[in-house]
Amino acid sequence: MTPSWFRPRGYKHLDAPVGSAFAMKTADPHFVLKHSWSPLIHYLKSSKRYKPKLRKTEYKDRPIMYASHRDACIFSKYAYELNEKLESYYFALGLTNNVVAYRSLGKANYNFAATARASANALAPCVVLCFDISGFFNHIDHKLLRSRLKRILGVKELSEDWYSVFREVTKHKWIERDALKAHQVFGPRISERSSAPIATIAEVKAAKLQISENQKGFGIPQGTPISSVFANLYMLDFDHAVTDKCAK
After folding, report:
1. CA distance 137 to 146
2. Three-class SS of residue 96?
3. Distance CA 149, CA 162 (A)
């Protein structure tokens, strides 16, 4: 039986795509604990945005890191479990109608924007505050994230499997996609229409491609299946405080 949270992924990585059989194994904490994690693949994603005040279009680069198929499957399973608990927290704290990012609510950003605009018009005259945090994922504090994770899981210390997942996200390793593309062997493999891996870890090390590691006490990758849930978890206390303030 295929888990409800599992979905196959077709991109090229350092391993081949996995199926429901692998997904079923992730239910065993010992399987996750013994898992050998792979480096993420990093690239910059450019988003085009029109600036009305400047009357021109600008491009914003976002650093994206995506996980191998096996790693992504494990992240998805733990993200699903964490999100279930987070949704319960939203309901208990009265945040269900306030938090809209990274949730399956059946609506798009323009729906929420239209609702916010209509509410502002109904309350007029009023003040609307808009904020954009630069490099949000890059500055998530690991200690704060870990404390919130333990709280929502209801534990004093993370279990070994959860700690393995947490450590892999916070102390993540990555390879540059441009470096793989530039390699005379790995580059052509990326363009091949097959499910074969781009390269094995042994091949990557033999080719002496740089594998970087986050050695700071902050920052998580943007692009893994669990990153968005961690981001919402990180903002839980802020969401509660702001909602409480607005209600008064």
Report:
1. 15
2. coil
3. 10
Phi-psi region of 130 (alpha: psi -120 to 50; beta: other; left: phi over 0): beta
Torsion sign (Cα): 238, 239, 240, 245: positive
CA angle 121, 127, 133 (to 5 degrees): 115
Which of these, 4, 45, 5, 3, lies nearest to 24 by C-alpha position?
Answer: 3
pLDDT string in tens for the chain (248-residue length)? 889 999 999 899 999 999 999 999 999 999 999 999 999 999 999 888 777 887 888 888 889 999 999 999 999 999 999 999 999 999 999 999 889 888 888 888 899 999 999 999 999 999 888 888 889 999 999 999 999 999 999 999 999 999 999 999 999 999 999 999 999 999 999 999 888 999 999 999 999 999 999 999 999 999 999 999 999 999 999 999 999 998 88
Contact indicator for 150, 157 with CB cutoff of 8 Å: yes
For residue 182, give every residue at least 6 positions away whose Cβ sits within 8 Å of its Cβ, in sequence order, or none.
none
